[in-house]
Automatic annotation (TrEMBL):
It is found in: Cell outer membrane. Forms passive diffusion pores that allow small molecular weight hydrophilic materials across the outer membrane. It holds the Pfam family Porin_2. The keyword Ion transport applies. The keyword Acetylation does not apply. Consists of 16-stranded beta-barrel sheets, with large surface-exposed loops, that form a transmembrane pore at the center of each barrel. The pore is partially ocluded by a peptide loop that folds into the pore lumen. Keywords: Cell outer membrane, Ion transport, Membrane, Porin, Signal, Transmembrane, Transmembrane beta strand, Transport. Belongs to the alphaproteobacteria porin family. It is a multi-pass membrane protein. Residues 1-32 form the signal peptide. This is Porin. InterPro entries: Porin_alphabac (IPR003684).
Amino acid sequence: MTFSNLSSPHQTIKRLVLTSAASLFALEAAQAADLPAKSKAIEYVRVCALYGAGFYYIPGTDTCIKLGGYLRADLVLNSNSDFDPAANGVAGARNRLSNSYTWRSREGLSIDTRTATEYGAVRTFFQGVFSWTSGGYNGAGTGEVAGATTYNAAVPGGQGSGAIAQGSLGVYSAFIQFAGFTVGKAVSQFSAPWTNYPANEYDDLPGGGGWVTGVNQLTYTADFGQGITASLSAQDQVVYGTTNIWNVSGATAAGLATGAYGTNDIGASRSPDLIAMTRIDQAWGLFQASLAAHDNHAAYYGVDETTGHPGDKWGWAAQLALSLKNIPTGIGDTINLSAAYTNGATRYNFNDLMATTYAMYGGTGPASGYQSVGLAGLSDSVFVAGAGQELTTTYGFRGGYTHNWDPQWNTAVYGGWAAVRHGSTAKGYICGAFVAGLALSSGMAGCNPDFNYGAVGLVTRWTPIRNLTFTADLAYTMLDQKYASGSTVTLPLLSAVAKPAATYELKDQSTLTLLLRAQRNW
């Protein structure tokens, strides 16, 4: 019998081997389909040593980042703000509407990035603060009629019954630096590195530039090596860099009684402030010279454009600053000094955190009167309808000395003084309004709106562990007005500060302010 349809034993074995192999490949393929795809290697955060401690590479990039900040709690005694003297408003009234204390809690956050390029490092820097400040009487009522007072009570969300902000956000710095250029919000190039704090926490120290909370600018800085640099800057000046441009023709008795010698008639922006600065910063200390040009651009004489306006008038400011480091009194001890002169650019002497009007009351007055009061006001220029601007001159200085007792304790003494002087024409404008509006007893002969303003203080800091500091800063502030001795004025009812219409003696005034602070940096 023949079996022609049967395979040979050799062919049968071959077929079985191929079938088994195909089955194995199919099984492996099925198993492979069930396995996850191979993931990329995890990129861990790496230390970036190019720019100092605290920098790390952002994973997957060549950019380094540093996060920093602080948490601060302030208690300020005898003030309605943090950290200013009782110099005006309800604080200056020194009555039941004035805060005995003001409390603030604040968190600061900074973000610093650097990227190395063929043009040098590209840097971005941001610093913002989140603050909660206790409330106070906002001056909406007389304080005597039920329902008329407005006290800003703390409620969820930072909203109170009054108009004083509690929860707030501040942007201090937001700038880009590239190839010598700085663009954005940063400390003014006019200011010394310590701004308005040569040794203090007190905000109201005259005698030089400030802008610690930053100002918009376009700056180019040339680095000549050996710590020598020079900067040219165009800086925003409306309205942060201007005190007042007073239209004295608009003065009212109520305004004069608060130290406002006219309506503040600042026009819209026309030109930025132009600044030139040179600095030598070496191991022994620092020397800096700064110049600023400031355009005073007023609005109109009256309520509309048909009334006309004064022409623009440029003012200027100059400052010299000196820092001495590691002086013989101790390791890390420093002396910081600055002096400023301005003509039509008052903010470069009275820093941007300071008030521009002063109305400080005292408890004693003339026998036939009610109380005493010190009145004064800052301006860049003054004018009356139909006339040009008259620039205001100021000059002053400030300084601080810090001594380190040991790594945990240091004490500093500081002070500042500044003078405000008006030309004869400007005095005539102001005094004409002042005598008529407030019935100055000594008349034109006894009228002088010039004044001096000064502050001295003592601060002690304790740092029990690194980056945790407790501070006590006591400041004494003085207003030296120049109206004739014994002069009186007749003030109208000032319901916002509960002062009655009465006769007040014009007199020098002073006040004490104490800051207690706890701060943790990170």
